[in-house]
Specification:
Blueprint (H helix, E strand, L loop, with lengths): L1 H21 L15 H18 L3 H20 L6 H4 L2 H16 L6 H10 L9
Protein name: DoxX family protein
InterPro entries: DoxX, DoxX-like_oxidoreductase
Family: Belongs to the DoxX family.
C-alpha cells in the first residue's frame, strides 16, 4: 500500500507542477508563473519531484524536499489568509506535507526503483554459481 500511496500522491502532485509550468491541465488564469519566480521554482520542484516519486527513485530525500516545499507553501501562501486550513485553501498543502514526510521515513515501497536498486546491490534474487 505504501507504493500505491506514493504513486497516487506523485501523479496528483505532478499535475500541480505541470499546470503551473506547462499550462496542462489548462489554468483558469491562462498564464503560468514568470520564469525564475518563486512560483516557477515551486513548479519545477513539483514536476521533477513528482516524476522521481512516481518512479520511486531517491524517494527519501525527494519526499523530504517536497514536504519542506509544502510546509513553506502553506506558511507563505495559505496561513496569512486565515487561521483555518479549510478556509485558507491550505488543507491539500498540509496533507501533502505529512504524506511526503511519512515517505521520507518509510521509503518508496516494494514497487519502486529504490527497492529494485537495493535488491540488486544486495544480490537478492541473483543466481549464485558455486565452483
Amino acid at each position: 500500500m505504501l507504493s500505491v500511496l506514493r504513486i497516487v500522491a506523485a501523479l496528483i502532485f505532478l499535475e500541480h507542477g505541470t499546470q503551473k509550468l506547462f499550462g496542462f491541465p489548462p489554468r483558469a488564469s491562462g498564464m503560468g508563473p514568470e520564469t525564475f519566480s518563486l512560483l516557477w521554482f515551486a513548479a519545477v520542484i513539483e514536476v521533477v519531484g513528482g516524476v522521481l516519486l512516481l518512479l520511486g527513485l531517491f524517494t527519501r530525500p525527494v519526499a523530504f524536499l517536497l514536504a519542506g516545499e509544502m510546509a513553506f507553501a502553506y506558511f507563505i501562501g495559505h496561513a496569512p489568509r486565515n487561521l483555518f486550513p479549510v478556509l485558507n485553501g491550505g488543507d491539500a498543502a498540509i496533507l501533502y506535507c505529512f504524506v511526503f514526510l511519512y515517505m521520507s521515513a518509510a521509503g518508496g515501497g516494494v514497487w519502486s526503483l529504490d527497492h529494485a536498486r537495493e535488491r540488486k546491490s544486495l544480490g537478492v534474487g541473483q543466481n549464485v554459481i558455486a565452483s
